[in-house]
């Protein structure tokens, strides 16, 4: 799993203090939306968590919905950056996949709120949800297409493969990273998933073997006849 990364450029105001304040509000919003959900979250709770006045919030965001949308975009930038950094320097597409998945799972472990916030976006802000996935998949498709043209991959459709690989990462991450192993302290009722942990190496290796076979398989004799 790998993704193209856009330069992270904080919106105005661009003063050092403004950047820190805006980041603090987004961090507080991540925590509050994850703990309470969008409906129960409020600007008051977010500003209290961030340690800023309500009036300060409106210098950076117009509404609760806008800060939610900005948070989805911010999480998207950060997860793509983590995936890109983890796959940098890979000599082959499969090495890039391995590194990208490592980066994604590490980010999920550090930011378990990603799952709840992205899922809430389906109802709160469908446009933000679509942008989240499209921003990841566009670069992903290009990378797979390039690898296929170079003969690294088998007879795959890069678009279908990109969406399928994202699904694998999301489901494996939910089961083994977000929920953790039994007895690790996690709870299905815990929105912050206190069982968050590193993915077991045996699970990661099996996942990569599956992906390797899927991406490098060649058509069998008689296929398509």
| Main β-sheet description | none
| Straight-line distance between termini | 32 Å
Oligomeric state: single chain
CATH class type of one domain: Mainly Alpha
The number of distinct β-strands equals 0
How large a portion of the residues is in β-strands, by DSSP E?
Answer: under 5%
Shape: elongated
CATH topology of one domain: Tetracycline Repressor, domain 2
Note the run of SSEs as H and E. Answer: HHHHHHHHH
- The CATH architecture assignment of one domain turns out to be Orthogonal Bundle
Helix content: 55-70%
Short characterization:
The protein is 69% helix and 0% strand.
Question: Can you give a write-up of this model?
Answer:
It is a single chain. This protein has 225 residues and is mainly alpha-helical. The protein has a domain at 63-216: Tetracycline Repressor, domain 2 (Orthogonal Bundle), CATH 1.10.357. The protein has 9 helices and no strands. The chain has helices at 16-40, 43-50, 54-60, 64-87, 93-110, 113-124, 126-149, 158-178, 201-216. Helix 6 (113-124) packs across helix 7 and helix 7 packs across helix 8. The longest helix has 25 residues, at 16-40. Residues 183-189 have low confidence and may be disordered.
